[in-house]
Design goal:
Bound molecules: adenosine-2'-5'-diphosphate
CATH superfamily of the largest domain: Dihydrodipicolinate Reductase, domain 2
CATH architecture of the largest domain: 2-Layer Sandwich
Largest sheet: 7 strands, mixed
CATH class of the largest domain: Alpha Beta
Strand order of the largest sheet: 3-4-2-1-5-6-7
Number of strands: 13
Helix content: 25-40%
Shape: globular
Structural class: alpha/beta
Strand content: 15-25%
Number of domains: 2
CATH topology of the largest domain: Dihydrodipicolinate Reductase, domain 2
Length: about 325
């Protein structure tokens, strides 16, 4: 079998760097690695398996001979260059939202719907939204057992979800406040240091943000569940890395807490960390740099019938983006 020639588009970004790390840590078998970014980064070197790889400028001619192209440079770049990569024969694994709801593009979480990756008429596979992936890692095993009907979610999303610039803005604001200096908010609509912002992405006509609508639309597509109901409030919090989600999930069958915990047994990529009597529950720092999503605080809803309240945390740069994309490449 010929080993694939892999390219990372946006290799210098927060997710691109993590993709490189995932390929290395998972000992991904490849024949060659091409790193692509903007003209600003052309000529820089990045380490892969102790060797220096020179970053090249992304152009429409970058994809000759490439078998798998991992895109993470924003939706505009995916829309402009993704079709060129597919036309050159590469399978595109796109981390942006550009193609996610396209009927000819599968939307894949390898632990949940790996078979969907096989049918890709446009040569493109989409990586879902980070919050959607992390939430579904907690919900899919329960859906399998009890039949998920309705989800009410509130998210606590780290600044690394906005790329390297989100981390810089939080850091600069914390330093400025500590030193009594003035500062501006450039990345976020309000101060992010020592604050929380109930807006992730832009608002749509129904008052929900695009991020909130992704939980509904992408959740339905990944689970193949057209009648799933999801209502969500996405909130940016001053956490560096790892998203947390508070979920209320209602099912067609009554789940007990014990049965819910048992539903995760043997499921890859998700672990139950749930011992409230000893203050054991997952927090963002527990999952930073880790592959698995952690589920805790599983309890019966006091409001809804056949419903559970639970809490899930996952590293959104990793399982929410880079790792999920590399796992899709592994399926190929
Ligand atoms: P560069 O570092 O050269 O700007 P993040 O989301 O962490 O900010 O990363 C964005 C990634 O997308 C970076 O690798 C960035 O490269 C890349 N990128 C941004 N604009 C372009 C462009 N016009 N062409 C190619 N890559 C781009």
């Amino acid at each position: 079998m010929k080993l694939p020639h892999v390219a990372i588009v946006g290799a210098t970004g927060a997710v691109g760097v993590e993709m490189l790390l995932c390929l290395e840590q998972r000992n991904f078998q490849l024949s060659e690695l091409t790193l692509l970014a903007s003209a600003r980064s052309a000529g820089k070197t990045m380490k892969f398996r102790s060797e220096d790889v020179t970053v090249k400028e992304l152009t429409h001619d970058s994809f000759a001979g490439i078998d798998i192209a991992l895109f993470s440079a924003g939706g505009g770049i995916s829309l402009e260059y993704g079709p060129s990569a597919a036309a050159a024969g590469a399978v595109v694994i796109d981390n942006s939202s550009a193609f996610r709801m396209d009927e000819g593009v599968p939307l894949v979480v390898p632990e949940i719907n790996p078979e969907a990756a096989k049918n890709r008429p446009k040569g493109i596979i989409a990586n879902p939204n980070c919050t959607t992936i992390i939430s579904l890692m907690a919900l899919a095993p329960l859906h399998e057992k009890f039949g998920l009907e309705t989800v009410i979610a509130s998210t606590y999303q780290a600044v690394s979800g906005s790329g390297a610039q989100g981390i810089v803005e939080l850091e600069e604001q914390v330093k400025a406040i500590a030193n009594g200096q003035d500062f501006e908010s450039k990345v976020y609509p309000r101060q992010i240091a020592f604050n929380v912002i109930p807006q992730v992405d832009s608002f749509t006509e129904n008052g929900y943000t695009k991020e909130e609508m992704k939980m509904l639309n992408e959740g339905r597509k990944i689970l193949g569940h057209d009648t799933l109901k999801v209502s969500c409030t996405c909130v940016r919090v001053p956490v560096y890395r790892s998203h947390s989600v508070s979920l209320t999930a209602q099912f067609s069958k009554e789940p007990s807490v014990e049965e819910a915990r048992a539903a995760y047994k043997g499921k890859p990529g998700v672990q139950v960390v749930d011992n409230p009597a000893n203050n054991v529950f997952p927090v963002p720092l527990d999952t930073t740099g880790k592959d698995d999503c952690l589920v805790g605080r599983i309890r019966k809803s006091l409001v809804l019938e056949k419903a559970l309240d639970l809490w899930v945390v996952g590293d959104q740069v990793r399982k929410g983006a880079a790792l999920n994309a590399v796992q899709i490449a592994e399926i190929l």
